[in-house]
UniProtKB/TrEMBL annotation:
GO terms for molecular function: oxidoreductase activity, acting on the aldehyde or oxo group of donors, NAD or NADP as acceptor. Belongs to the aldehyde dehydrogenase family. SUPFAM superfamilies: ALDH-like (SSF53720). InterPro entries: Ald_DH/histidinol_DH, Ald_DH_C, Ald_DH_N, Aldehyde_DH_dom. It comes from the Bacteria. The keyword Cytoplasm does not apply. This is Betaine-aldehyde dehydrogenase. Keywords: Oxidoreductase. Pfam families: Aldedh.
Length: 494
């Protein structure tokens, strides 16, 4: 077994710590279905220990009191260490999530490093402003950290999504308790140690692995937690927001998506189809900002579907350890079953499977992995559940539109609003339609162009709050106003 994902412990108060109850859970390699290792099954007692450590680090420790520049140095060292230890992190994300190694290296690991780099710059921008006021006073604002942040993250991009929250929260001077997804906990435990190596003081980052209903729920309810940063499904997010609401904790909710991808007749069709394929197979479709709903101008619908029929089966699928692989397994058997149920439902709803629809035939170790074929479906009615719900796998539905108004109406017709995209050569249309789509981010003539400087987040059932960009700091700071009386001196008698 590699030292990279050896049986690790929880990380609390700067130390590897066995869970209070001593329980552990299996971690499965989705590319083979075999048990890879185990991780601690933390519960409310472990969450309590982690929150106490984070609370002490915030109330008494150096981290919130350090200058932004000193915090920036630590965060920058984290970025450097991520790159130095990239091989280990690629191995972890590939084994734990089933990610193709090329994706893990160039997207997951590199993005995490960039986030720490970007947030190290943000740490030096926490300033306030002087306010002009008619009252006889000097009035100014300060931006201050919130305290202890409870971060809860999903299974699909464990390293990126935890770094998104932790780097921004730490930049602002908060301390963090992180509860990663039950089925992909390994990079979180690795990163806890890496942050300590980079110089993060004891208690600044604590990681408790375990299930949502046990460890996650305990974090939501803990009175020592000042803010919840949640990324996950809309169903769980709704519950998490209401539990946090009972305790009047501020929340950021990054939830599900079901992005519409519009191709107008004047688009560069070859480039558009390339982006369409990327948008639905990226990370084996387990991407909140995926584009699983293709909306095509009626006059080019059949031509686009034909190109997809020919091209999609050729996307390299298989062993995540092969650098050429683009589509790996689903991250868990339950995720594959859910995709297969949606494909069966599509058949019942009258859909036509253009390509895919089954399991690929793989041999050797890979025969036990959780693979599904990339699948393209046409002919579904507008009220189809497969069109309107989040499938979260490599499944693309195709519908046609007659004009711009219908395209926008179809695009905005689901409950979600995370990402959307459009392809056109008409610049005026690009701006016009981008402004009409219900989505936190809109891409034009490509898909998944993401950068730590560019904010993203949801509208409607995709959540609220923004991550990335300077906006991320807003979510982890509060404003304090200071007003100093400057009484007018009494007039001296002449
Ligand atoms: P999930 O909602 O099942 O789990 C997310 C996290 O919540 C996990 O850590 C889980 O253990 C925890 N959790 C579960 N029940 C809980 C409870 N009762 N109390 C507290 N915590 C609980 O999501 P998932 O299946 O891991 O991830 C996939 C979902 O995440 C998809 O819907 C996807 O769109 C969404 N997602 C959103 C974004 C975004 O930025 N908007 C990014 C990635 C994934």
């Amino acid at each position: 077994m590699s030292a990279t994902y050896e049986d690790r412990q929880l990380f609390i108060d700067g130390r590897d710590t066995a869970s209070a109850a001593g329980r552990r859970m299996d971690v499965i390699d989705p590319s083979t279905g075999n048990v890879l290792t185990t991780a601690p099954l933390g519960d409310a007692a472990d969450i309590d220990a982690a929150v106490v450590a984070a609370r002490r680090a915030f109330d008494e420790g150096p981290w919130p009191r350090m200058s932004g520049r000193d915090r920036a140095r630590v965060l920058h060292r984290v970025a450097d260490l991520i790159r130095e230890r990239a091989d280990e992190l690629v191995e972890i994300e590939s084994r734990d999530v089933g990610k193709p190694v090329t994706l893990a290296r160039h997207v997951d690991v590199e993005t995490a490093a960039q986030q720490y780099e970007y947030c190290s710059a943000l740490a030096q921008t926490l300033d306030g402003s002087v306010r002009d006021t008619p009252i006889p006073a000097l009035a100014y604002t300060r931006r201050e950290p919130l305290g202890v942040v409870g971060a809860i993250t999903p299974f699909n991009f464990p390293l990126i999504l935890s770094s998104t929250k932790i780097a921004a929260a730490l930049a602002a001077g908060n301390t963090v308790v992180h509860k990663p997804a039950d089925d992909t906990p390994l990079s979180a435990l690795f990163m806890a140690r890496l942050l300590a190596d980079a110089g993060a003081p004891e208690g600044v980052l604590n990681v408790v692995t375990g299930t949502g209903p046990e460890a996650g729920d305990a974090l939501l309810r803990h009175p020592g937690v000042d803010k919840i940063a949640f990324t996950g499904s809309t169903a769980v997010g709704r519950r998490a927001a209401s539990v946090a609401g009972e305790h009047l904790k501020p929340v950021t909710m990054e939830l599900g998506g079901n992005g519409a991808h519009l191709v107008f007749a004047d688009a560069d069709i070859e480039s558009a189809v390339g982006a369409v394929i990327k948008a639905f197979v990226f990370n084996t479709g387990q991407f909140c900002m995926a584009g699983p709903r293709l909306l095509v101008a009626a006059e080019v619908h059949d031509a686009v579907v034909e190109v997809l029929r020919q091209a999609v089966p050729g996307v390299p699928l298989g062993d995540p350890r092969d650098p050429a692989t683009v589509i790996g397994p689903m991250a868990g058997d339950q995720h594959r079953k859910k995709v297969e149920e949606y494909v069966a439902l599509a058949r019942q709803e009258g859909g036509r499977i253009v390509t895919g629809g089954g399991r690929p035939e793989l041999t050797g170790d890979l025969a036990g992995g959780f693979y599904v074929e990339p699948t393209v479906i046409t002919g579904l009615p507008a009220d189809s559940r497969v069109v309107n719900e989040e499938v979260f796998g490599p499944v693309l539905t195709v519908q046609s539109f007659a004009d711009e108004d219908e395209a926008v109406a179809l695009a905005n017709s689901t409950a979600y609003g995370l990402a959307a995209g459009l392809h056109t050569r008409d610049l005026a249309r690009a701006h016009r339609v981008a402004g009409r789509l219900d989505a936190g981010i809109v891409w034009v003539n490509d898909w998944a162009m993401l950068d730590p400087a560019v904010p993203f987040g949801g509208v409607k059932q995709s959540g609220f709050g923004r991550e990335y960009g300077p906006e991320a700091l807003e979510a982890y700071t509060k404003t304090r106003s200071v007003v100093i009386s400057l009484p007018t001196p009494p007039q001296e008698e002449s």
